[in-house]
Write a structure and sequence with these properties.
The protein is an alpha/beta fold. Helix content is about 40%, strand content about 15%. It has one domain: 3-Layer(aba) Sandwich (Rossmann fold), CATH 3.40.50.360. It binds flavin mononucleotide.
Length: about 180
């Protein structure tokens, strides 16, 4: 099973990228986690629907090539970052070629604030619902970043958080497998 992950932050010091690295380190045997990269995408405009740029075609193909997707989103202004929304906009078009259609997705996120991206994740669920991407309901990962949960190399060292992420990954695999079975 190949599961893509999308880091919704372009920050070089992103805590959501740290979270992604923890997921990669904890991936169960037989599960490959691959990053889906959108940082070369320009700002979307419908003007190019008839002549999609190569970067956007590659982005759509990368989504379509994986069995399921985990989105690690920061919370910006109680919603998702504009760059992540822009990437999803590209994937949804041109009309009739929505790359998220039927794709099983799971959401997690880390923030500095106490609600741990809960508001952003609710917005993202609404977007994914519209795109017909079945989204894992439970468990939820609303991580409030604590520096002491990570070592100097950026590896997760907190046992409780590790157990939370392992449980989440197990649920993601079941979720992706269920939709793969339905689609077959
Ligand atoms: C434009 C902007 C808006 C933000 N809005 C929120 C917010 O609504 N809720 C929150 O908990 N943190 C907010 N933050 C703080 C982020 O949680 C923090 O920057 C976090 O490190 C972002 O994740 P990243 O490190 O993966 O980029 C905001 C940060 C920025 C730059």
């Amino acid at each position: 099973m190949r599961i893509g992950y999308i880091v919704g932050s372009l920050s070089s010091t992103s805590i959501n990228r740290k979270l992604a690295r923890a997921f990669v380190a904890l991936a169960p045997e037989g599960i490959e986690l691959v990053e889906l990269n959108y940082k070369e995408l320009p700002v979307y405009s419908p003007d190019v629907d008839g002549d999609y740029p190569q970067a956007a075609l590659d982005w759509k193909s990368s989504i379509e090539s994986v069995d399921g997707i985990i989105i690690l989103t920061p919370e910006y202004l109680r919603s998702i970052p504009g760059a992540l929304k822009n990437a999803i906009d590209w994937a949804s078009r041109p009309w009739g070629t929505n790359s998220f259609n039927g794709k099983p997705v799971a959401i997690a996120g880390a923030s500095m604030g106490a609600i741990g991206t809960a508001a952003a994740q609710q917005h993202l669920r609404a977007v994914l619902g519209h795109l017909n991407a079945p989204t894992l309901g439970q468990p939820e990962v609303f991580l409030q970043y604590r520096a002491d949960a990570w070592d100097a190399e950026g590896a997760l060292v907190d046992e409780q958080t590790t157990a939370l992420l392992q449980g989440f990954l197990a649920a993601v695999v079941t979720h992706v497998d269920r939709y793969a079975t339905v689609a077959a």
